[in-house]
Each structure stands twice: as C-alpha cells, then as structure tokens.
Amino acid sequence: MVDDQLSEVFDLVEVRGVVSGGFVSRGPWVTHAKIEGLKFFAVVSGRARLNADGLDEPLQLEEGDVAVLNDRAWLTAEGGSGDGPPQEVTPDADFSSFRLTSGFGAGADVVVGGHVDLDPAGRALLSQALPPVAHVRGSGAAAANLRGSLHRLLDELTERRVGSAFAVRQHGQLLLLEVLRAYVGQAELPPGWLRLLTDQRLRPALDLMHAEPGRRWGLAELARAAAMSRTSFAERFRGVAGVPPLTYLGRWRMLLAQRALRDDDVRVGSLASGLGYASESAFSTAFKREVGESPLRYRHRLRD
Prior knowledge:
Elements: H1 2-13, E1 16-25, E2 29-34, E3 38-45, E4 48-52, E5 59-61, E6 66-70, E7 74-79, E8 87-88, E9 109-117, H2 120-129, E10 133-136, H3 144-159, H4 164-186, H5 193-197, H6 203-211, H7 219-225, H8 230-241, H9 245-263, H10 268-274, H11 280-291, H12 295-303
Parallel strand pairs: 2-8
Antiparallel strand pairs: 1-9, 2-7, 3-6, 3-9, 4-5, 4-7, 6-10
Helix pairs in contact: 1-2, 3-4, 6-7, 7-8, 9-11, 9-12, 10-11
C-alpha cells in the first residue's frame, strides 16, 4: 500500500527525474556547481565526497549511493586516487564518451547527475518531505532495485539504441522512485506526507481518506479506524504528517482537483460535489486559498 500511494502521489503532482549530465574519471577529480531546486548526484561506480550548503561535514558516497539536494545553492564533490592535483571536471550531457572507457568499474569513478522536474504542488510536497541533503545508500538488499536502476539508466545513456531518449526518461522516473523507496527504509524522515505513508498505526485512517476523499470524514471515525483515541490520533497524525488530519485531507482533495482540472473536462460544480464540498463557491474559495488562483483560471492557464 505504501508503494501504491507513493505511485498515486507521483501521478498527481507530475514528479519526473531528469538526467542532465555525468562524467567518468580515472584519477583525482573535483567538480563544483551552483544549483537550485531538487538535484540528485549518483555514484554509479567508485567513490566520492560531496559537500553542500547545509551539511556540517562532507558525505562519503560509495558505489550505488545517491545524494538528493533539496533547494541547496551549491555543491562540491571530489574523488579519485593517485598523485598530482585533482582535475576539474564538468558533467557532460553527451554520454557517448562513456563508451570509450574499458569497463566502468576498473578503477574509474562514474557519476551521473540530474534534477527532479516538478510542478508547484510536487515542489511543495517533496521539499517538505526531504531534509536539506538526503543520503540514500546503495548497499544492502533493500537498495538492490536502486543499484539496478542506476546501471540500466547508464546503459541507455551510453548505448544510444533506438528509442533510448524515451527509455532514459522512463528510467529517470523509476530511478527517482527507487531513491525515495530506499530512503524511506534507511532514514528518520522529517514530518510530511512521505513519513505519513510509512506509518503503520495511521495507515488504516489514511487508506480511508485516500479511498473516499469526498466523504465528510470526522476525527472520531478516523481515530476508530486507527484503533486510537481522538486525542492520541490527532497528536500522532500531526507529529507524523506535520498537519492535522483534516488539513491533510483538504490538501489531498486539492491535489485531486488539480489533476482533474488538468486532465479532464469535468465541470467545476461536479468536481466540488465529488470532493465533498457543499457548494461550488466553497470549493472555489478553498482552491484559490491553496493553489493561489481560481479553478477556472488554473484550468485555462494549463491548457492554453
């Protein structure tokens, strides 16, 4: 169920992992970059030390590790071994040169980087769910799919087979999903929706809200589903999700509304009723408060 709801979130907010560049180095190297938004830095083979604003000390990245940088301003990474000063490397969007290396694992550091392409709703959700820098470890059985995703992505980037551009987009999306799956199992998550999806005590109540978002759920009914008192349920939910249960439900409804307005031709009045609002006016007021514009303006802007 956790994975199903995570997939639902990906669909609602249009989260995509986009590969932007990479490099192969066989000696000492260093790279610097100014960044913004959500970025990922993946070590396909070899090792690297990564630093960024918000870190007290550099991260030691091993083979298969991924660092996700959440709205940071800069990063510096270095690696390799041997004599002499490190060579300054700049990630290249053309991966054809990777094919010239004789085996990625034979003493080479292979690094792939990219950004997470998000709509405003997705940006708000993921930036809240992740720390400033998330270290996702590729070691261990739980991250086997992550390691496989990295190597399949690199294979598509370097081999240039027919349809590779489409395959790279799909593998980038799957890589991001595997990063979040692995991170959920490895770290103490900050309060937010990602942590909420993993909370076994709250899952029965969360399942009800996701299954019937238009129903007028009461706190007592949700608490009973979780086999908790109203007070305990409300306190635990706020501590895990960062917001009260009914606030979460309202925001979830708004995400559903944005998808419907983006993809469907449903009338605003019917959408309001289906999501549990007493009137179109009440829905429009809530939508504008959450999204920043009216439902009709939102629809017209996305479809123009």
